[in-house]
Amino acid sequence: MCMDEGFAKASQLIAADSMALSESDLNSKGYELLQNEKHLSAIDIFRIAAQAFPESYYSFDSLGEAYMKNGNIELAILNYKKSLVINPENENAKKMIKELEGN
To answer: Which of 12, 26, 53, 83 fits a 20 to 30 Å CA distance from 19?
Structure first.
């Protein structure tokens, strides 16, 4: 249903706590969309995951990857940095920030 009605509707349902979400399912769907070059849809899925699971470094890491693949380097870096705040040991985020910032 959320894929049909968009991020705004999904965000409302999450805020109202009226739907059960699985972080694993959301990430799987997001990566499926990325593999199919549906970057904007993947970004929406990862945004939903980050909203539903704000303490998950993995959700922000995935969102960073989706933004990077869509060409939005600024938002990619921002989300990789959010991932590092949650988990300072996230080696992927450290690596990607370094690459994206050109260091």
So the answer is: 83
DSSP codes joined into one string, 11-65: HHHHHTT-S---HHHHHHHHHHHHHTT-HHHHHHHHHHHHHH-TT-HHHHHHHHH
| Angle (nearest 5°) at CA 58 between 8 and 89 | 145
Residues with Cβ within 8 Å of 29's Cβ and at least 6 positions away in sequence, in order, are: 45
Query: DSSP code of 88?
Result: T
Tens digits of residue pLDDT in 53-62: 999 999 999 9
Q: What is the pLDDT of residues 13-26, one digit of tens each?
A: 555 454 567 888 88
Residues in the chain where the model's pLDDT stays below 70: 1-20
pTM score, whole prediction: 0.81
CA pair distance 79, 73, nearest whole angstrom:
10
